[in-house]
Design goal:
CATH topology of the domain at 40-222: Neuraminidase
Low-confidence stretches: 1-8
CATH architecture of the domain at 40-222: 6 Propeller
Distance between the termini: 24 Å
Helix content: under 10%
Strand content: 35-45%
Largest sheet: 4 strands, antiparallel
Amino acid sequence: MKKISYLFVLAAFSGFAQHSKLVTVIETKADIITTDIQSNIYVVKGNELSKYNKTGKLLYKYSNKNLGNIDFVDVSNMLKPLLFYKNFLQIIYLDNTLSTNGDPVALDRIGYNQAQLACTSFNNSIWLYDQQNLELVRLDQNLDRITGTGNLSILLNTQLQPNYLLEYDNKVFVNNPLTGILIFDIYGTYYKTISIPGIQHFQPIGEWVYFMTVDNKIEAYHIKTSEIKQFTIPSENFINFRLETDILFLQNKDSILLYNDSP
């Protein structure tokens, strides 16, 4: 995404309050939602993953009942979505039609018996949060360790109970609701903390990190300047959100609402 697109996204989000138009409703309950850069939306319900396009049309489904519920889906690389099954310490890769893509990754077989989080990294690599050693670890495509942060509890002098891990634009984001969002570079070097406790959902876009506050509002934090912007959203009863270019996705208990900023 080019810099002008970052500015457009920020302006678009600001304009939703004045010009929002509900364009699609996907009637479904969801445990997890996420989106890709083409505004496709991915919905997890238990052990099933569904992919919809931006008009709300169901495109594909995937499930694997042998591995239980899906704990995380990463579509940073939309051609190779990553699914993480924490209870079974398994990573499954799919293709853009949600068909399996390559062999599963059994983390316990390579020494990570307490991997709590996993996400996609560049060059077909993987980031893990290893609870046993309280550290971030990056594995290459051959599952060899490339780098690690060391014990983050000691490094940052803080208690860790992270619940979300994501690489974006040469940065690694770890959500630790006790303290805020921890930011590292792609070599695992600590950069800074967005010191806002209680964040449950966030999305980095350009130099901004959009997040839900504890009272269900959406704000954006500028990574370099620490500036915070607040937004008025066209619906009050939502539990998660995503933003892709000109579409705002709001999840409530029974459906997913798609808004655009057209007048």
